[in-house]
Write a structure and sequence with these properties.
By secondary structure, the chain is of the alpha/beta class. The protein has 8 helices and 10 strands. Strands 3-2-1-4-5-10-9-6-7-8 form a 10-stranded mixed sheet, sandwiched between helices.
Length: 279
């Protein structure tokens, strides 16, 4: 059985993420595990004015976790687990490749549109499995489409396969979106190039829609001449969830979140599932 691992810190955000995970598990049959990672400097969501306890132990962490699970109203539906480690490392080390990690968005800075907190960002960068980011005010499981972004790469097909499995277990339809952009150089911005790019997009989408993993699933395809993140975010009001692949670059690509996945995780109100690149 696959697990849904929910990062808990005692905040309302993490409690709502836990409720989302439990609601999803009622359809998928996955086990839900509420995980609190703790250290001297991270003792859960402390009340205003409260001081950290020098003698904080795992027994205290278990009490914080139990209180958070109780507050979410799902005590009988989840298993609880505490880890003595910083949250990003503790949660991602605990996860297996076939799990789903769920975190709440906790953007608290001056940029109102940025919804992703630093811990969630770090978990996205380190996770060995897909990660779902749940925003505070859209924690309910929606009835809309699973919107998948593809670019023709192997890693984006992994995202499509994850979405296909989700659709097969939930009965949700899938919308496959491929964004392509007009060449920046005027000397090649001619009708023949435009037609070739449009045909390539149509062929890519047709091949993706015919993937055997989508058998029995209602599928719509959409080619958009524009940026990938913006094209996906156009569906934000009614998407059940977004599913995209991590496309980290550079010598430490596992620690670099791709541009599209990062923008979606920062700005989308619908849940965003980032499917990790295989190492």
């Amino acid at each position: 059985m696959s697990r849904i691992i929910v990062g808990i810190d005692g905040s309302e955000n993490s409690q709502l993420a836990l409720r989302w995970a439990v609601t999803r598990a009622e359809t998928t049959g996955d086990e839900v595990v509420a995980v609190l990672a703790w250290s001297f400097f991270d003792q859960g969501q402390l009340p205003p004015g409260a001081s950290m306890k020098p003698e904080f132990t795992d027994d205290d962490a278990q009490q914080v976790l139990a209180k958070a699970v109780d507050a979410a109203g799902v005590t009988e539906k989840v298993r609880r687990h505490t880890i003595h480690d910083p949250a990003p490392e503790g949660i991602t080390d605990y996860a297996r490749p076939d799990d789903l990690i769920v975190v709440g968005a906790r953007g608290l800075g001056g940029f109102k549109g940025l919804l992703l907190g630093s811990v969630s960002q770090r978990i996205l960068e380190l996770a060995p499995c897909p990660v779902a980011v749940i925003r505070l005010d859209t924690h309910e499981v929606r009835d809309g489409e699973i919107v998948v972004g593809i670019d023709g790469s192997d890693v984006s097909m992994r995202a499509l396969h994850w979405a296909a499995d989700e659709a097969s277990r939930t009965g949700a339809p899938i919308r496959i979106v491929h964004a392509w952009q007009w060449p920046m150089f005027a000397e090649i911005a001619v009708p023949e190039v435009y037609e070739a790019l449009a045909k390539n997009a149509a062929d890519l989408l047709a091949e993706a829609a015919a993937d055997p993993s989508l058998a029995g699933t209602t599928v719509e395809v959409e080619a958009v001449n524009g940026g990938a993140a913006q094209s996906l975010l156009a569906h934000d009001d009614y998407a059940r969830m977004f599913v995209v692949a991590d496309r980290g670059r550079g010598p430490l690509k596992r620690l670099v979140l791709g541009s599209t996945s990062r923008q979606l995780a920062q700005h989308a109100t619908a849940p965003v599932v980032v499917v990790r690149t295989s190492d």
